[in-house]
Amino acid sequence: MKNHFRSLTTQVLIAIVLGIIFGALFPKIGAELKVLSDIFVKMIKMVIAPIIFLTIVVGIAGMGDMKKVGRIGGKAIIYFEIVSTFALAIGILFATVFQPGAGVNAHSAKGDITQYTKAAESHGVMDFIMGIIPDNFFGALAKGDLLPILFLAVLFGIALSGLGERGKSVIELFEKLSDTFFRIVNIIMYYSPIAAFGAISYTIGQFGIGSLVSLGKLFGLTIFAMLVFIVVVLGSIAKFYRFNIFQFINYIKDEIFLVLGTSSSESALPKLVEKLENYGCSKPVVGLVIPTGYSFNLDGTSIYLSMAALFIAQAFGVHLSVGQEVTLLGVLMLTSKGAAGVTGSGFVTLAATLSAFPSVPVEGIALLLGIDRFMSTARALTNLIGNGVATVVVSKMENEFTENKVGNQSVGKSA
């Protein structure tokens, strides 16, 4: 029992329950505890850039075959596009069938959305492409933007690989540095239950359960759509590649509860990298797929965006034909990439998407302000699971997966 209490999962779960109770009983104090979560997320972000950079460089330099690197990246991008399209389609289907916005009072849309509409105007596809290339080497690492770091790491890994024997000492140094940063993450994780307590207390104290009730139909339907996506779509993919989705979710449960407590998928990124390597995925595949997936494979965000867009249209009594919904799907496929990595990217992407549909008022996103904090947790959880599955799939595609390694003894050969 004592050892069970020491488990990170147990500690975070207890912290979440206590946070809900504290936020409900002392909402004013609870609303001030967000700083506890902010400290943790900031500490995690502090080590994400070097961990991703070192992991990718060591993986690529150790692999040596640049054609293989390109093949892994290409397969990952194709997989991301196919699966995220399924996610968008599921969101549109559920919103069309169940009509969550029907009967909602659109005149209740109040709130300052200018920060999102302005950001949407300045983050088009070309801005996104230019943003991949950093202004300077150290600036990308300092800012912590994943795609510029990925770009730098791939170039650095290719260059280091070309040095042959002369580059081995650098690779060995980077491996030791990588181990050191993962040790730092393990130290930071001791603080995670406190962060979870603060985040949940803030959410309940600031927004209250009432914000869920008022838009409960959209919230519940979105959660259900995400569950269907995980069980049916990701579950089918997992079965085809001979592992069990439920056993895999159980394997990454610590990371899931960490995201549940902090509402940030980034908080679990370093540990997810480590977990997937222990699970059997090769370091190069993990290093390439995970950071790329955090920008291109946002399955939970895709489901939410497609449902939110139709919710707003329904709330304002705007009927979209099948052709318009298909067009909406296409627009979302582009805008969801164009605003990746932007603060408040969910609203930014939604604002950019609705600008392509003048009949749907962009100010309708104010309807969603009350529940976005809750929805961000659901999005982050789905994104986390989706990227974990993607990494295993690409590893198996490339025969870069070690069966019966730590964590997959019973999963690797499951039907």
Structure commentary:
With 415 residues, this protein is mainly α. The protein has a single domain (2-67, 77-397), classed as Proton glutamate symport protein. It is built from 21 helices and no strands. It has helices at residues 2-5, 8-25, 27-30, 34-63, 66-98, 114-121, 125-132, 137-143, 146-162, 168-188, 192-207, 210-214, 216-240, 245-251, 253-262, 269-279, 283-296, 299-315, 322-338, 345-354, 372-397. It is globular and about 70 Å long. Mean pLDDT is 79; it is low at 338-344 and 410-415.
CATH class identity: Mainly Alpha
In terms of per-residue confidence, which ranges show pLDDT below 50 for 5 or more consecutive residues? 338-344, 410-415
Overall number of strands: 0
Q: What structural category arises from helix and sheet content? A: mainly alpha
Strand content: under 5%
* Major sheet summary line: none
**CATH architectural arrangement:** Orthogonal Bundle
How is this structure best summarized?
This protein has 415 residues and is mainly α. The chain contains 21 helices and no strands.
Question: Secondary-structure map with pairings?
Answer:
Blueprint: H1 2-5, H2 8-25, H3 27-30, H4 34-63, H5 66-98, H6 114-121, H7 125-132, H8 137-143, H9 146-162, H10 168-188, H11 192-207, H12 210-214, H13 216-240, H14 245-251, H15 253-262, H16 269-279, H17 283-296, H18 299-315, H19 322-338, H20 345-354, H21 372-397
